[in-house]
Specification:
mainly alpha, membrane, transmembrane, ion transport, two-stranded antiparallel ribbon, Large-conductance mechanosensitive channel, 6% strand, cell membrane
Length: 128
């Protein structure tokens, strides 16, 4: 059972998944800092509120708080844009590093092959 566990852990997919998870957490912290410390204060300054959490709409006797939802949307958009840029950069770099596939030259038929094909077609036509 321990041997199977070692084989499971040593698989490339599990290790790549673990690295991706750790990198995702670190990246989320960067984006959260950007949103919390730069973007949200700008939104608060434009709306005149003291905190994003206090952004609400009063409908009759109910308060609809949209501040946290707004923050979640901005976080999502920034993470999506940043991941797109990272993936696009990685794809570009890996495409440059891969050697171009060798093109196998297409061999053109020889004159004899063309003549044999014409002969066969004429023989077929004569039989019909």
């Amino acid at each position: 059972m321990i041997k199977e566990f070692k084989e499971f852990i040593a698989r490339g997919n599990v290790i790549e998944l673990a690295v991706g998870l750790v990198m995702g957490q670190a990246f989320t912290a960067i984006v959260r800092a950007l949103v919390d410390n730069i973007i949200m204060p700008l939104i608060v300054a434009m709306t005149g509120q003291t905190k994003v959490e206090s952004l609400v709409i009063n409908i009759a006797s109910a308060e609809v708080g949209y501040g946290l939802f707004l923050q979640a949307i901005i976080n999502f958009i920034l993470i999506a844009i940043a991941l797109f840029i990272v993936v696009k950069t990685i794809n570009t770099l890996t495409a440059k590093n891969k050697p171009a596939p060798e093109e196998t030259p297409v061999e053109a038929p020889t004159v004899e092959e063309y003549l044999a094909e014409i002969r066969d077609l004429l023989a077929e036509k004569a039989e019909k």
